[in-house]
Each structure stands twice: as structure tokens, then as C-alpha cells.
């Protein structure tokens, strides 16, 4: 089967407001994070299926005539056996491989399996709650569907970057959700939706509603690198609500109101001239929610440090995601000078944190012209990640 | 007129929970703070009325036959003129003098004015929101009423310390409130009630309800010495509520629930064996309320430092009173060792703060035997404050 070469990217996600409260039936706002995962799919002729995942040090190759014909594309159980784990937890590399094989076989399994090499690299740290697995699944779904011809290739000759139509995005999203199912078992669907549509999503009681228009906001994303367990943190919040119901219920209501107020402010920023007052409000909402998250017991001294260090530069931060360490976001104002940004990044790095200047609210999955690769980069590990063998020379 | 020599003391007050929220119709808990003001009243024979207030560097003496007969005890307006201010703000010394003269003339004005010397000194910093003026007014009311015979002298020969009966406390409190009226114009009545009854008071919508039984809790009281205006802070909270009503209203509800939960925990501590769980709950309530006060915008970096420094020693703190600087309280557990307490006090002093180890929930106004003076001390200024002339030799 002849397949189309494809280069795609999908963004990570951050929770702007409503983490934890969403577990208790409140609104959360998820936004695309312009640290992206990139996938390059190349048709090959050697009769091999190759997958290169440099971020997680995974480089695999299978003989299509030999190894892969043992597989029944419908049976995830047999895929698990193939990857080498019959039960228990898979490691990141095994899950990524399983997810790839599942989507590959689902898209191409009815015909002759095509010989191709897929390389994926990411600006996103893995396991930091930033939707890196969803960005991976979205890239895989988009690239495989596009390569197979199941969806169009929206890129015109004169474009560097293009997006799919709503209908095709729906298809990408549903397949990406399948990939997330394999990796996470029971995903909320928020991460792959953000990776697919980008911008901002309102998430309430399992319902995901993409917001029509949101401004692009400059931020710093900081990874405190303090490890934590989302499960433990979620149950800590639950315990606190059970212990002090009359105190904690209003806090969740207040977080709900923060999400709704933030949505309103962001919507105003797209319909009227943006003023300092809009940014003041966004900063205040950050501060209030950060205090509420501390009340819920999901703060951490490293996050306090992040808030203090950035506030010393006049910038406002909050944790994003599960808390208890992990990542925080810092809002940058349009007038925040690059000198201030650089000094803040340096201060945060001096605390032992990783820190990226990026944006939220940007586009979801995109197709790129091959030349785009020359401008993309991968900051993980400090350098651009080398692609394996022949990919390296072609880009 | 022959008057009785009297030595009395009254405690300061701290807000345990509900500061600011009380302005918006929520419950606040006020507690007695065992930093006390002491008043020594001595009958003299020289025909002079002397007042010594070493804490505020005020030492005055009037000739009873000359100067004071110009005064009409019913007219505060004329008292103001006498003190030298017809309108505008009085300074601390002027207000204390005015309040003293008002109470003195009210108690003794119907007969011959007695010759006496009143000396008042305090362990409380002034102007720190710790009820030092109320402790002063309560001491004045108790001592003058007792000296005049309007209330009993409850002290038996074998007691070091005694309290008045409920009815006489009511009288002391109502006169102390008059003194507070002169000093503050429109006081809430909470401070003089705490100074009179001690223990803990529930304060809601202008109604003050003394709680029947509360445990004595060890605390550190820290004065960050950051100056602030209560008026500015109260209006800052109001502005924030107006700006984000749906976010702030639940925060006030949560503070209300904190006060009620705290009251419940403290009541349990007097009716069942005290456990670590009781202290854990009190600590959690401190932490949650401190975050809420930050949400209201009345935090301050110095208060953050206080919380961080004490938490490093495993101790939990919150601001008390208006915030924006001012004072904070740190809960000490029964098992907190004196080494930890001393180290914490030193760390706080190293931050430039004043710090006292004391307790909350102790008794209100008390009469003391003269020998009690030997054991009392006044930490203000670091040394025991010297009393003026003949008082010094008699104590």
C-alpha cells in the first residue's frame, strides 16, 4: 500500500483553572500549551515498520512480513502480549509502542500493511501532567489517517502549516482517544480534545465544550520536577472535603466561579480592546485559585517558591494540574519585557526548576510542510533531539 | 473621700478566626490574649490626681482644688478642650488621658474628688490591634469602681488573684465601653468584652456572646511591625467582593464555617480528652483561614515569612486582626518542646519581628494582691518599666 509522507504536530495542555474542583462536579478550563509534539511519517520500501521516539529513548523496527502478521489488529490483549506485558503496568516506552501499533493496525490492518518509519519528538516533558501522551496520540491519529488517505492532506503548496476541517478533526480526536485509552485505561478525553482543537475547552461533568475564541496568552511554564502521584492528591482533596465539608464546599464553589469569571474575561479580550484591567483580573484569578489549591492541600513548598520568585518580578503564578509539585504557569503581560522574562527564567532555573517561555490558547493539531522542520526544535535535553538514521539526513 | 488601693489587670485580645468576614455579617471568634495591662491605684494625701502611663511616656499630675474643679464630668466636649484638642485626632497620650479623666470624674464626680495616683503599664504593644486600649479602659473601670466602693473588692487575704461576680463584670464592661467610646469613637465593644470576660467570644452582626468554656491554648504572638491602616484594608476587601462577587461570597461563607468549626473543636476539647486530632484540626483551620485572608487581599510578605519560618519548625500560623502586616499568631501544641519554641522565637526575631510566648483563652479582668506585682513584669522596651517616684518604692 502506498502511503503519503506526513509531518504533523499537536500541542500539550495545561489546566488554567478548576483542577481538582472538576473531580467534584465543578467547571475546569483546559488550554492548549504551545509546547508541541511533532510526528514525521515517511513511506519506506524496506518492508519494515520503524518507530523512533527519541524523548523516551525508544527505537523499534519490525519486519512487516514476519513479525507483524502474527497480530490481530482488533485484539489489544494480544498487543499487550506482543509488547511483552500480559498484565500490570506498562512502562512509558511499552505504552507508546502499544498505542502506536494499535492505531497503525486499526488504520491499515484491513489491507496490506505499509512499510514506513514514524519518528516522534516533543517539546513536552513526559509524566508532568501536560498532555504529552495525548499530543502523541493526536499526532499518531492525524498522521496515520492522513497517510492512509482516510482524511485529507489540508496543506497547499504555498502553506507552511494547515489544519483539518471540523469533521476530520472529530475523526482524529476519536482515534486519539482510542490511543489514550490504551495508555491511560480511563482517560477523561480532555487532553486529546485540547491536542486536537487547541484553544480552550470548558470541561464540566464529563462534557467537553471547545470555546469559540480565546486570546493567545504568553506564559512561563515551570516544572518544579517534584514528583507526585495524582491519585494520592485527588484522594487528599476528597479526605479534606469529608473532614471539613462546610468549609470546603464553598471553596469548590469559589473555584467554579473563578473558571466562569476567567472564561468571561478571556471572551471579553477577543471582543473588545485588550486593556491592563483584563490582565489584572487574570492575575488576581491566578492568585486566588493558587490560594484555594493550597487550601485543598495540593500545594508544595516548591510551588510556593515558584510563586514567590515570580512575584518578586511582578508576575503571578499558579500550579497547573494535580499540584503537590509538578508544574506551574506564570502569566506574562504584553508589556512584560524580554529582560524581565529572561531574568525570571534564570531565577527559576537557579531554583532547580525547568522553565519554558511559551503560550497558551494556540492551535491544535496541524499539518506542516516538510521545510517547517528546519524551524522546529526540541528543547528536551537542552538540544534538538537527533532523529535516527535516514530521517536525520532528509530534514 | 477615702479610696481603696487597688491592683488590677486585664488581658489583650486576638481574633482567632473571622477577621474581615465579620464586617460582612459572618461569625468571628475573639479570644483573650494573656499579654496583660496592669493598673495600680493608690490613695494619696497630697491633693493631687496623678496618672503614670510609662508605655506611652505619659506622666501627668493635676491639683484637685485648682485645675480639676473647672471640669464638668458630664461633658466630654469640655474634657476634650481641657486635654487641649477641640476637634481632630487626639494622640495616644491625649486619648488615654481623656479616657482616664472621663472615668475618674464619672465615678467620683458626685462627691469630693479623691487624691490618688494611677499607674498603668502593659505587656501589649499599642496600636497593633491587640486591644491595648480596651485593656486599659477595663483596668481603669475596674480599679476606679473598686476604689470608690461601687463594686466589691473580691480579693480575700489568702488570694493572690480574684475575679468579680457576673453582675459587677457587667458594670466594669459598660464603663470600659464608655472609655473605649472616648478613645475610638465607635468601638464594636468586642475588645472591652474580651478584656472583661476573658476566654472567647463569638461575635456576629454586632451581638457578642461569651463562650462558656474554652481551653487555654499556648501560642506565639508575633508583631511583624509592618504598619497598616485597618480602614484601608477593610475597604480593600470590600472592593474585591464588589469586583468578584461570585468568587468572594463563598470565601466568606468558608471563613464563617471555619469559625463555627473552630468553636466546635474548642468545645470538644473541654468536654472530652484532648487528642492530637484536636490540635491537627486547629492547625488546619489556621492554614485554611490564612489562605482565605490572602485571597481577601489582606496578606503581606512579612506574614508569609512568619508562616514559612514557623512551618519550618512544624508550627502553623495565621495573621490576626486587620492583616496587611501587623500581628500573627502561631499555635503551639502541648508537646511542642521549649527548645523548639525558643528556636522559633529566635528565628522570628532574626526576621526583625517582635515575638512573645503567651496563651489565649485565659481569664479576663482580675484583682491582684499587692505582692502579685513582684511576679509581674512588663516586657515592653525589654525591661520592667519603672514606676514613677513613690510607687516604685512601695511595690
Automatic annotation (TrEMBL), chains A, B:
Keyword set, alphabetical order: ATP-binding, Cholesterol biosynthesis, Cholesterol metabolism, Cytoplasm, Kinase, Lipid biosynthesis, Lipid metabolism, Magnesium, Metal-binding, Nucleotide-binding, Steroid biosynthesis, Steroid metabolism, Sterol biosynthesis, Sterol metabolism, Transferase
UniProt-listed SUPFAM superfamilies: GHMP Kinase, C-terminal domain, Ribosomal protein S5 domain 2-like
Single GO molecular function: mevalonate kinase activity
Gene Ontology cellular component annotations, sorted alphabetically: cytosol
GHMP kinase N-terminal domain ranges (all copies): 109-194
Location of the GHMP kinase C-terminal domain: 280-343
Domain of life: Eukaryota
EC number(s) recorded for this UniProt protein: 2.7.1.36
Location in or out of the cell: Cytoplasm
Reaction catalysed by this enzyme: (R)-mevalonate + ATP = (R)-5-phosphomevalonate + ADP + H(+)
Pathway where it operates: Isoprenoid biosynthesis; isopentenyl diphosphate biosynthesis via mevalonate pathway; isopentenyl diphosphate from (R)-mevalonate: step 1/3
Cited Pfam families: GHMP_kinases_C, GHMP_kinases_N
GO biological process: cholesterol biosynthetic process; isopentenyl diphosphate biosynthetic process, mevalonate pathway
Family recorded in the similarity comment: Belongs to the GHMP kinase family. Mevalonate kinase subfamily.
Job description of the protein: Catalyzes the phosphorylation of mevalonate to mevalonate 5-phosphate, a key step in isoprenoid and cholesterol biosynthesis.
Name assigned to this protein: Mevalonate kinase
Originating species: Takifugu rubripes
GN (gene name): mvk
